[in-house]
């Protein structure tokens, strides 16, 4: 593990601040002239989901260093669990982050489908969503059974292998009536409900099927309450549900309302707003675990639209919390309720995979900016803020990601002249199976490929890595997984933001 950066330096010694101010002013002058190819970045971001595919790859697979893998997933349990996504640089299929990824891809298409289409990427975005939802359909084998995970993190992490060579356990784990998982069921319901909106026009039969699964999953999650990591202990060291399941139930309920217009779901979100923490929690992170900010932002939109006057007193309180989140990202709350920014201006939540919080914040700020613009409203932070400022800030985060930062590096792999070349990713770091089919074993991979200093042989284009530390410093080493590992849910929210920024540039 790497030495911890001294994050306290952000707020303390003056010496440090002066040094950074000097660097920073040089950097701002040089950065202001940069322009970015958002359309190119959007195309690349969608390629990433092809690199993460598990299962039998289709004829039109564009990431050609990958091949079929995980073809017997579920076989031991007598269920077909072939397909879906690997979450990051390993080969476990974790249900909760996979579902969140699909929710965010779908939300991107719901808000910015037109802009994605203008960039010529709608077909790829729909394929990325469907690769996930096809898997969820398989994994939801009966109304109250959902397969939660395939593979197990502990044996997987002993091995450094290509997915095509995988010899590790493919144990599958499920939630059911006796082993509940309301968070997983709620998020998967959210993903399928959001995707059902996406496919409503182009594929109504599929859309209807997704909605049916979403409704059953929501009912299952609500009726049999519990945290999925109590039922599937194996996830505890990887994707423990720290925030519990109440956020996912509200979130799933709200997405079902968006998909169905059925008042039943809206009333659920209103009636449980207080007891489930929806209007009590002002949180400054939005992630695969913590959904409150996203939920509050959609509820705030309902408030702005003014269509649900009978629920205004609750929607208003959702909106207050949504705005707390937004203002916090802008550092415009009164007092200390603000997130940190690095000296280079990047949102900084925590050291391990900080970029996930950056891309999700950029997305939420972008959609909130549009909600405000469309309803001709402003935001009250500690002072009034217009919609332009939200978009400008979101853009600054994306520009930082794409290279406008003290390291002059794009954290979106494959974009621009300089990007991480030793991404912590098993498949990318080993010679492609299509080039060399000779079996590479578990420890052989560590000895011959993981420990090499050379760049990875395969570029995992479109992956958004964990990113720099609190002082904008980044070290491109394969073993530095806190910074060089990428995850599907880092890139997913970027899809919508990049489409919006590209379109905005076209408009000017
Ligand atoms: C902001 O915080 C300061 C210090 O805590 C307080 O005196 C002031 O009243 C607050 N302003 C608002 C608008 O809440
Ligand atoms: C980044 O680019 C600027 C301007 O070209 C340069 O002054 C600076 O030294 C570069 N920083 C790094 C870490 O390469
Ligand atoms: C940045 O990281 C490099 C490589 O790990 C290290 O040598 C350097 O001291 C770090 N710089 C700061 C300011 O932390």
From TrEMBL:
Claim: Hydrolase is one of the keywords in the record: yes
PROSITE patterns reported for this sequence: GH9_2 (PS00592)
Annotated ranges, domain Glycoside hydrolase family: 38-498
Alphabetized UniProt keyword annotations: Carbohydrate metabolism, Cellulose degradation, Glycosidase, Hydrolase, Polysaccharide degradation
Protein name per its UniProtKB record: Endoglucanase
GO molecular function: cellulase activity
Reaction(s) the record says it catalyses: Endohydrolysis of (1->4)-beta-D-glucosidic linkages in cellulose, lichenin and cereal beta-D-glucans
Family label: Belongs to the glycosyl hydrolase 9 (cellulase E) family.
Active site: 424
Organism: Nyssa sinensis
InterPro entries reported for this sequence: 6-hairpin_glycosidase_sf, 6hp_glycosidase-like_sf, Glyco_hydro_9, Glyco_hydro_9_His_AS
Enzyme Commission (EC) number: 3.2.1.4
Membrane-spanning segments: none
An annotated GO BP: cellulose catabolic process
